[in-house]
Amino acid sequence: MIYLTYGEPPSGVYFSQVTDVLNYLEQKQNTPIRLVAFISLRDFFQKRKEIIKHRTNAIVVPMLPKAPYWKFNSILLWILCFFLRPRTIIARNVIATNMALLIKKKSTVKKVCFDGRGAMKAEWTEYPITVPSNWKNNIQQLESDAVNKSDYRIAVTEKLVAHWQSEYNYQLNNHVVIPCTLNSNFKPHALTLDEISSIRKAFGYDIDDLLLVYSGSVSGWQSFDLLKPLMTDYLKKDAHHKLVFLSNEDPIISDLILQFPNQVSRKWLKHEEVTSFLVACDRGILIREQSITNKVASPTKFAEYLSAGLPVIISENLGDYSEFVKKNQCGQVFTEQNSINISKTPLAERNRLIELVKDNWTKDAQRENYKKLLEALQ
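^ that's the sequence the OP posted. Answer follows.
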């Protein structure tokens, strides 16, 4: 079996959602899977080294320049399949799936599984994605083929399945829903007041501060234009209301720091330092606009916030998670009709949230879904 990625550079998300999943399937489900990764020529050898570090038997090969030339890269995939002789390819995202479908009839491959991570056509339509216009014109057909011509499918949310049904007339039940899970190195433990206090002091925050944290990228779908007025209102209420961004620079973040220099900050931490810092905070922020991209999404930060015992301030209709927050009382669903109203979360409640994430967003919590997937691909 092959797991195929195309055009995705190594990153924290890649290691959590690709290499860590394959390591888990190999170790816990006794299923060997060969990672085949097509990556850009830019910094190729460094990126290849990073992927091999996390998945030692991975085959990492260069893409032809410009992503739209994926059909030419399919020739190299066919050559690899000629020697590896896989019966199944799990392909991450639309382009990789179309590559697998293209060579299916001319190789040992009998089944192709579409690992759908989101709504690609919607994302390219709703947000500024730098790809040639002719490729944008083709993405709807490519996504339709990935959805309807694959033998099996993985969706990250039930809302993504509903999108396939309405947008591409998907009428089968040949799929499994597996959300974005935490990395396997996550070890849940009960927090203590001393632990929280010591981390806060180490980062220069007072025990009385109410600290909101935004952790993630500054991509367009993160909806900073929506976040800014909400945070401005929150910060004006009390000098002890604090906000920290764990992200790259962004003009909106800079404006907030300029307006509230003693309350807003931005930090860049190593991946292994983020969870420790989150423990020092009081709420995690997941505010996004009402786009299709966001309505089908499975944001990894949701589980990361809960893993640190943080209730989540989340917008309506964000994947399956807004309803999860309501059902499990693990945060606040923000609407334009309400405002942020938070207080300190009792220690017992924070530890309940850690148990909640352990039961839903670890790979062991999804073991039955992984088993169902592998049985369908035999």
